[in-house]
Amino acid sequence: MAKVPDRQICLELLGRMCLIRRFEEEAGRQYQRAKAGGFLHLAIGEEATIVGTTSVMRDDDYLIGTYRTHGHALARGTSPDAVMAELFGRETGTSGGRGGSMHIFDGERRFMGGYGIVGGNLPLAAGLALASQYREEDTVTVCMFGDGASNTGNFGETMNLAALWELPVVFLVENNLYGMGTSIERHSAVTDLSRKAEGYGIEGERIDGMDVLEVRERVSHHLEEVRTKGRPSLVEAFTYRYRGHSAADPEVYREKSEVEEWQRKDPIESFIRLCLEDGVLGEDDVEGARREADEAVEAAVKFADESPEPSLESLYEELYVVSETMGWYAVDERSPEPHRGELGEDAPEVAKNLAESGASHAEEARERQSREGVRE
Ligand SMILES: Cc1ncc(C[n+]2csc(CCOP(=O)(O)OP(=O)(O)O)c2C)c(N)n1
Ligand SMILES: [Mg+2]
User: Is domain 7-306 given the CATH code 3.90.1150.10 in the classification?
Assistant: First the structure.
């Protein structure tokens, strides 16, 4: 069992875990109230894996996750205000309100997102690590993803290349035993996911993701190994999500008793017990941490609520388009038919409906195009 760290570290670990828990509970509530739109995936139960990992990363290391990453950003130091505002689709959100829950991003703190495609963040992690290697920096990329993602082609391809090119990545599987409603026994031929490292000739280790101190100790070891030896490794943190896959999950695939069994291993409550038994923290500290989390989250909701929505004029800002195409095309792509390069007036009805208010801008874009003679 890992040694209990000093008081300051314990307070930080507890504070961050309490903040994530409260934030997620409130995010779920705000989603029910339709304040937060799109999809919403909560990481309640996975706090020790997240906080244990980020607590031993350097500020200049990179972290990249999936779509269950409010907590990852918070753990990295992103303000709860900005994360909540992103869920609310407000201008003050981490992605200007354009991304929502699945696309939290904080480049300043090297939290590189936030991705909706299962396994899609793995190649990006390899790219980040390749940049570190190319620039001869000793920064490490930590790539966190789910057990389900470990079955994707992206996983195999990225692990292979990362091992071959000796890229500094710690691949960290948050094994919460389910990919949506499919249990790990039903989705993966090998259920000890750390063994998937063997095929790529790298180190793999399974750790208790409910124990923040164990996560700290083992991830710290892997970070050090990767940083100094320049080879990737695979860590499987065994954890559990107490809530459904997303806010719209009736949870018919698991028994209540199973959830309750895991709740007895609650990562926050067990860390509190340990700290109180050890004497490093007292009841007052615990109360203080909970109170601070409550206050921070309450303030975040207020901030998000009072923040403006992005203006209509900003609709086409910061869109990712290749070449000099105008914003119209980006909106156009949201409709089922392929009509890249079409002019607004020729677009089918469905595209026009989707574009809605954007249509007037399309006209502007068209006029600008003919004025400037821009063609695809
Ligand atoms: C490529 C791709 N396939 C399918 C989906 C739909 N989908 C969203 S989440 C999910 C389950 C992924 O489970 P896991 O990787 O274990 O992560 P967890 O949700 O448990 O954190 C699936 C299949 C998707 N988003 N992307
Ligand atoms: Mg999973």
Answer: no
